[in-house]
UniProtKB/TrEMBL annotation, chain B:
Residue span, TRAP C4-dicarboxylate transport system permease DctM subunit domain: 6-415
Subunit structure: The complex comprises the extracytoplasmic solute receptor protein and the two transmembrane proteins.
Protein name: TRAP transporter large permease protein
Keyword Membrane: yes
Upper lineage: Bacteria, Pseudomonadati, Pseudomonadota, Alphaproteobacteria, Rhodobacterales
Domain of life of the native organism: Bacteria
Family the entry assigns: Belongs to the TRAP transporter large permease family.
Cytoplasm as UniProt keyword: no
GO molecular function, one term: transmembrane transporter activity
CC annotations in GO: plasma membrane
Pfam families: DctM
Cross-referenced PANTHER family: SIALIC ACID TRAP TRANSPORTER PERMEASE PROTEIN SIAT-RELATED, TRAP TRANSPORTER LARGE PERMEASE PROTEIN
Keywords linked to the UniProt accession: Cell inner membrane, Cell membrane, Membrane, Transmembrane, Transmembrane helix, Transport
Automatic annotation (TrEMBL), chain C:
Identification of the protein by name: TRAP transporter small permease protein
Boundaries of every Tripartite ATP-independent periplasmic transporters DctQ component domain copy: 30-159
GO molecular function terms noted in the UniProt entry: transmembrane transporter activity
Protein localization: Cell inner membrane
Organism for this UniProt entry: Cereibacter changlensis JA139
């Protein structure tokens, strides 16, 4: 039986919620394969930004990776679903959707279009707004605020609909832009907000919960298919064990870190989400056909 | 594998293959020899390395520098500096230093600084009795300020390779830049005491004000660029574009020294100069990826950490290494190749990444005027009609001076970190 | 033979002339886009979403085409120690060897650049939603130009005339 070490790309560092999942996967894989199959994590985007990592796995240049679903909309329109605001209301709704037929169908599409196999749906969790201007009690409080989005048309449309002056900006520039005031506002999951020390440059944490962000654990499809059927099964089993561990850690860290961010001086606001949800309906309508109306409706229905 | 990666590069560089191609070829040979991964990695990594927004600042600063030179901005800076320090002992050498510092706060490149200021001041210095070799050496060293004082292309490159913010790296360059300016000024004064030369007549307050008024638009430019960045109005890349627009307006509309018909050629030449730097970045990115795949940093780091037990010793070692590298290799290439290798080790010694970046950039700025290979050296040699051989001897005192300043900057992290607010 | 070499050099330099102005145009486009981006954010309070991506793609094209142009006129940074130590004839041989190495590099870039462009054809760019092939095609295009210019450099070395002028 062959021995192998898989290089795994992570956007965040060794203490992150992503690393919890990747480490667990590695441990289980090593245990199940009796030491034959191991992993070597590469933290902080050392192998490239998320888009290049997804592309690289498809080309056989990178073994494995965990990324947000952000770059996948470039390969399969259906993945723009996860950029759409207020689609999933609870983590359980998202888990139900992802772990069932819809998640499988999305994974199958990514495999055929990008050559990337999703092993399991880990997560970044819900994304929230932080800014330096005022607490957000409703979308009207976003007026005139310069807000940074990821590179995504859907996200720009969302924040424009909410009333902000929204523009995309490269991730490496965000901290300084917020510190100097080129940008007032950004949005990310709580563990990321804590990990990159946004509490040093942002006063308000607003739990807007506007997007649920999955973080699939992936392997290049070519590489996966080159493994023996037994090893393929081991990889899938290790991922299946690691997914709930990662999700649990992500949810626990979110709760703990909200308190910690408050202790570090951020003003935490829990706005009524209904007005936000209403404001973004036109964005959902606008993108529904591109993403696939059935898929959007199925996702919206997953919580109820 | 690692031996092939470094060996092939050395052979190709020595043979005179352009640095950008040599880095790519060395990576390709290594991938092929070791069957490391599919060759698609070659175009993917090259494109990834240059498809980056912060990098856009490089063509813009190069364009701004060219527009300033063509639009009469550098001449006015020189005239104003002359009224300020021209009458002191060693006055004109000081003018070269002060003007270079001003110019450096607008342009991102050491070569642009040397060319723009040296074209005016080297002949002027020779006319006042400075030896051409000394005038050229002083200018080559002052030109290195271009990349220590922000904005700066090497600072941008380090920020990108090290995942640091460009804004932080710029803030960190200020005080070290002024330490170097101070050192060079003292040096110019001491030199003039030993080798007396003419200096300008003292300027009246009226002269200073008149020259100041003429230069005011040029003098406002550093404030506009750096104020734009630190006042929270623009990102460094956008600031570079503002520098372009500003020099265009000043040169075309206000000074009227820049005819519109000259613009296309300036745009084209700036694009070519940018491509020279950016193409090295593209293949250095690929080369760096192979370094990572072969786990070179981990291996070297294990060795270094086993052999050395203090951060101080490590910093000295890094300085010796980069000094040697800088003798032969262009700063941009050196930063892109050595950051991924050295930074993880520096971090494990508890050295702040921003401080480490400044150490690297100051060191490689020296490389711009250390013989045998140095861009500033070549430009100053051409401007002064001094042979590279003579100039190589004339710069040695400046190399010694910079070594002292480099030690100060290396061992006083405060100089680099005080203004970053981190 | 000399006539063929001359025609080759003239042809390549004609293409270079065009590419020189194309690069000037790319530089102008980048400047306008990013100035507009700042203006839109502050004056119109409504940020641009596509400017950054278009400017980045332009930079990649500028780099690849510019590398070929700069190579032709000896503007690429190189360590030119060895040539200075050799005699005239050996220096010419070395120049041809260097050009052959550059041509080999260009061939590899061309081949794999075409392959990657084909593969990313269905992929869309995040902000403009155009095909990613618009980005990656810069690689084979630049590689083809480097290859042509390497041939022109070799042709130049085989002719009695001195250096080419831009
Ligand atoms: Na500078
Ligand atoms: Na040097």
């Amino acid at each position: 039986q062959e021995s192998r070490t898989f290089e795994v790309s992570l956007p965040l560092g060794p203490e992150s919620h992503q690393a919890v999942g990747v480490h667990k996967f590695g441990e289980e894989l090593e245990r199940l394969s009796e030491g034959r199959l191991t992993i070597r994590p590469q933290y902080d985007n050392a192998l490239g930004a998320e888009r290049e990592v997804v592309e690289g796995m498809g080309f056989g240049l990178i073994d494995m990776g965990i990324t947000s679903t952000g770059p996948m909309g470039g390969f399969v329109n259906d993945f723009l679903l996860f950029d759409l605001p207020y689609i999933f209301t609870t983590p359980e709704a998202a888990y139900g959707f992802l772990d069932g037929e819809h998640g499988d169908a999305l994974a199958a599409k990514l495999e055929s279009e990008a050559g990337v196999k999703i092993l399991g749906w880990m997560e970044n969790g819900f994304r929230h707004n932080t800014n330096n201007v005022r607490p957000l009690n409703g979308p009207e409080d976003l007026a005139g605020i310069r807000h940074r989005t990821q590179e995504s048309r859907v996200q720009v449309d969302t924040w424009t609909a909410l009333g902000a002056n929204a523009s995309p900006m490269a991730w490496t520039e965000v901290f300084t832009a917020l510190q100097q005031g080129v940008m007032d506002s950004q949005e990310n999951p709580v563990p990321t907000i804590y990990d990159v020390k946004f509490y040093d440059v942002q006063r308000y944490l607003n739990l807007t919960k506007h997007v649920y962000s999955p973080a699939p654990l992936m392997m290049g499809a070519q590489l996966f298919n080159s493994l023996s059927p037994e090893d393929q099964a081991l990889v899938m089993e290790a991922a299946a064990i690691a997914v709930p561990v990662q999700r649990e850690a992500s949810q626990r860290m979110e709760q703990e870190l909200i308190d910690e961010l408050e202790r570090l001086g951020m003003t935490v606001t829990r706005p009524d989400l209904e007005p936000f949800r209403e404001r973004v309906q036109p964005v959902i309508e606008q993108w529904k056909d591109t993403v696939g109306a059935e898929l959007v409706e199925a996702a919206q229905a997953s919580g109820s | 594998m690692t031996a092939i990666l470094f060996g092939v590069l050395l052979v190709l560089l020595f043979a005179g293959v352009p640095v950008a191609f040599a880095l790519g070829l060395a990576a390709i040979v290594t991938i092929w020899q070791g069957e490391l991964m599919p060759m698609l990695i070659v175009p993917q990594e090259m494109i990834r390395s240059i498809n980056s927004f912060p990098l856009l600042a490089i063509p813009f600063f190069i364009l701004a520098g060219n527009l300033m030179q063509a639009g009469g901005i550098s001449e006015r800076l020189v005239l104003f500096s002359r009224t300020l320090v021209g009458s002191m002992t060693g006055g004109l050498a000081m003018v070269a230093i002060v003007t270079s510092a001003f110019f450096a706060a607008i342009s991102g490149s050491g070569a642009a600084t040397t060319a723009a200021v040296g074209a005016i001041l080297i002949p002027a210095m020779v006319a006042q009795g400075y030896s051409p070799a000394y005038a050229a050496a002083n200018q080559a060293a002052s030109g290195a300020l271009g990349v220590i004082i922000p904005p700066s292309i090497p600072l941008i490159l380090f920020a990108i390779s090290a995942n640091q913010s460009v804004g932080d790296m710029f803030a960190a360059g200020f005080l070290p830049g002024f330490v170097v300016v101070g050192g060079l000024l003292v040096f110019a004064w001491l030199h003039a005491l030993r080798h007396p030369v003419d200096h300008d007549e003292p300027s009246s307050l009226g002269d200073i004000l008149r020259a100041g008024r003429k230069a005011i638009l040029a003098l406002l430019m550093p404030g506009l660029i750096l104020g734009g960045i630190y006042g929270g109005i623009v990102t460094p890349t956008e600031a570079a574009v503002i520098a372009v627009v500003y020099s265009l307006i000043v040169g075309v509309v206000i000074y009227r020294e820049l005819p519109l018909r000259a613009l296309p050629a300036i745009l084209r030449d700036s694009a070519i100069t940018s491509a020279v730097v950016l193409s090295i970045i593209a293949t250095a990115g690929l080369y760096g990826r192979i370094i990572l795949t072969l786990q070179v940093p981990a291996v070297i780091s294990e060795f270094v950490i086993g052999a050395i037990d203090s951060a101080w010793l490590f910093i000295i070692l890094v300085n010796v290494l980069l000094l040697f590298v800088g003798m032969f290799l262009e700063a941009a290439a050196a930063i892109l190749i050595f950051t991924p290798i050295l930074l993880p080790i520096a971090l494990s010694f508890g050295i702040h990444p921003v401080h480490f970046g400044i150490i690297m950039v100051v060191n490689l700025a020296m490389g711009m005027f250390t013989p045998p290979v140095g861009l500033n050296l070549f430009i100053a040699s051409a401007l002064s009609r001094t042979s590279i051989a003579r100039l190589s001897i004339a710069v040695l005192p400046f190399v010694a001076l910079m070594l002292v300043l480099l030690m100060i900057i290396s061992f006083v992290p405060w100089l680099s970190l005080a203004l970053t607010g981190r | 033979m000399q006539a063929v070499l001359s025609a080759l050099v003239r042809g390549v330099d004609g293409v270079n002339w065009l590419i020189g102005w194309l690069m000037a145009a790319l530089m102008a486009v980048m400047t306008v886009l990013i100035s507009w981006q700042v203006f839109a954010r502050y004056v119109m309070g409504d940020s641009l979403t596509f400017s950054e991506e278009v400017a980045r793609f332009s930079t990649v094209w500028l780099t690849m085409l510019g590398a070929a142009y700069a190579y032709r006129y000896g503007a690429l940074i190189a360590v030119e120690l060895l040539a200075g130590l050799l005699g005239r004839r050996m220096a010419i041989v070395l120049k041809i060897v260097v050009a052959l190495a550059s041509a080999a590099f260009a061939l590899i870039l061309l081949r794999h650049g075409l392959a990657i462009t084909e593969r990313v054809l269905p992929q869309t760019a995040p902000s403009t939603r155009v095909s990613m092939a618009w980005l990656y095609a810069a690689m084979p295009a630049g590689a083809a130009m480097i290859l042509l210019n390497a041939l022109a450099v070799i042709a130049d070395s085989l002719r009695p005339q001195p250096e080419a002028q831009p």
